[in-house]
Amino acid sequence: MAQKNRLKYILLGLLKKQRQTGYDLAKSFDSDIGEFWTANHSQIYPLLKRMEADHLIAHEAITVGQKLQKKQYYMTSAGQQTFNAWLKSPSDLTGSHDEFILKLFFIDDPKSELLRPMITMQQQYHDEKLHHLEQQFQEKFPNQKRIDQDFGHSLVLRHAIDRERGYSNWLAEMVKTIKTE
Amino acid sequence: MAQKNRLKYILLGLLKKQRQTGYDLAKSFDSDIGEFWTANHSQIYPLLKRMEADHLIAHEAITVGQKLQKKQYYMTSAGQQTFNAWLKSPSDLTGSHDEFILKLFFIDDPKSELLRPMITMQQQYHDEKLHHLEQQFQEKFPNQKRIDQDFGHSLVLRHAIDRERGYSNWLAEMVKTIKTE
DNA sequence: AGTAATCATGTAATTAATTACATGTTTTTG
DNA sequence: CAAAAACATGTAATTAATTACATGATTACT
């Protein structure tokens, strides 16, 4: 790929909240931000180096225990600026790649016997996903105070929930459509 | 990137409908399939060669006019099998990358003055997109007959429209939320 | 005290995808 | 008929991202 390197901005955004190590940053993709973006440590470590060379971030070496060396990264003011500029820039919307939709596109026969099992599988996935997201929201935002503290995150989660509901409804509608056909 | 090479299956799916050239295939991404996937000719031509080497497709050379050489690609039975196996396989859902959502995630202050212009921009984009998609649907599927002929495509378009409506509603809700805050 | 899990950081090989470079033919339009 | 637009096919350079390889330290558990 030769994408837009959005990971750079994610790392900046995460470092803005608190200084942390590459390991910590990588972990974020297992939890909160992982809900809608992926990255692994082998991509993160080299990128952090590059970003430091570009003076967007810097690090402080910390020794833990006897020998273990940690690198606490933090944002520079140049990084701040770059990040803010990104927030204000127009967003690229061409990245939505839903493989199921893609498959569906190629089913030209409404009576195809492939359709029903495909939809069932998808329903299962999205139901689970919806349930998971709702749980996440309750866990992370049980009250208004928490929402105000991490507003963007709450909006994104809410959006994800909305999206899953829409998806589920659409799948259910589809089942009805092919049932009568 | 090292993605799942879904383009391979797209090309197979398109060739299944009719034999065509790499140029024709590339053009598909400017119209119908371009609604939700991107690819350019410099990616397509080499991939077609590789797929032919793998015996998923084959081509027939056609001379147009005096000199122009076209390559009409078509699916082999092995290609058919590969394509069908893909349709039946579980779909990878990790590819949804909405940059706006990503930005939103990092706005932790509900009173941030960045929020409103960001949303306005996004609303404009999605309203246009919605309008475009609705037009597309009317153009391509004016009656039930057309829908039955290209069922999957109609479902996908309908889904895209649904999604845009959901997105617009969510954005509108968000505006209300930040207005009162 | 031993061991498993987690913390912590990197590199190498491969593949996917974008942008730019490069060339020539045929058809349409003024 | 000349020019522009569209047809047609490729390669090169670069960047992004995944998977696998590689190593070692610290903490938690039994």
TrEMBL record, chains A, B:
Every Transcription regulator PadR N-terminal domain range: 11-83
One protein family per Pfam: Vir_act_alpha_C
Transcription regulator PadR C-terminal domain sequence ranges: 98-178
Superkingdom as given in the UniProt entry: Bacteria
Protein name, as recorded: PadR family transcriptional regulator
Annotated organism of origin: Pediococcus parvulus
